[in-house]
Amino acid sequence: MLRFKSLGSGSSGNATVVEAHGKNGVTRLLVDCGLRLKQLDERLALAGLSAELIDALFVTHEHGDHIGCARQFALRERKPVWMSHGTYAAIGAPDLDGLLMRAVHGASIQIQDLQIAPFAVPHDAQEPLQLVCSHGPKRLGILTDLGHATPQVLEQLAGCHALILECNHDTDLLASSGYPGFLKKRVGGEFGHLSNQQAAQIARTICHAGLTHVVAAHLSERNNRPELATQALAVAMDRDVSGIIAAHPISGTEWLQL
To answer: What is the distance of C-alpha 204 from the center of its chain?
Structure first.
C-alpha cells in the first residue's frame, strides 16, 4: 500500500509525507521541509506521526518554502537527507555530518520499500528536482515548482495513480494583482510557477483511468482560489470536481491511499 499526506502547501511552506506499507514494515519519506521545526513537529503529530518515524528527507530545491528546517531536522533526528548537488551548493554547502545523500536526475533511489525517481524540471533554482514515488505498481507523482512542463516531465508522470500538481496562479488574477511587474514576469515565466491552465494541460495529457487522486498544490493565496484550480483540473480531466482536492496552505490534505 502507498499513501500520502500534504502537511501544508503554499508560499508559507511545503511538506509532504509519503508512506509505503510493505513486507519490511512502513517506510516514510518527508518530501520538502519548508516549515519551522516546531511547526513540522506539530503537523506530524496531527498526522498521527512523530519525527523519529520518518526514515529519510528529500528536498526538491533550495527555496525557503521547501528547504525550511531540513538541516535542523536531519541533524536532530539523524536522518539522511537527499538533494541535488546544485541544491546543496545553493544553501551554502552546510555541514550535514555525513547525512547528505546526492540525488541525481534519472537515478532511482531505494529507501527500504519505497522507490524514488527524481527528475529535473525548469524552475528558477540551481538544480531543482521533482519526483515520482513508487511501491510495487503504485506511483505517486509530485510536481510542485516549475515554470512549464517539458516532454521529459510528462514522460516521467505517465502512468501515475496519484498526482500532487502545482496550480500556483490564475492568469487573470496574477495580471490584475498588486505584484510589481518583475514579480508577475517571474511567477508567470518559463522558470516560474504553473498557472491553473498549464496544470490543467498536464492533467489532461497524463490522465488515465487509474489516476485516482489529484491534489492541486502550491496555490498562491493572493493570485488563486481553490475552486478555480479544482474546476480547471476537473474540466481538463472530464471528471467531477468533487474528486479533486486543493491542498490547504496550513492543514494540507487528509491521508490519501493508493
So the answer is: 19
Question: Do 146-248 and 1-103 have the same topology in CATH?
Answer: yes
Give the model confidence (pLDDT) of 127-143 as tens digits. 999 999 999 999 999 99
- 1-103 folds as Metallo-beta-lactamase; Chain A (3.60.15)
Sequence spans of domains, the chain: 1-103, 146-248
The reply to whether CATH 3.60.15.10 applies to domain 146-248 is yes
The DSSP line for 44-77 is HHHTT--GGG--EEE---SSHHHHTTHHHHHHHH
Over residues 64-122, the pLDDT tens digits come to 999 999 999 999 999 999 999 999 999 999 999 999 999 999 999 999 999 999 999 99
Please check whether residue 20 is in contact with residue 102, taking contact to mean a CB–CB distance below 8 angstroms: no
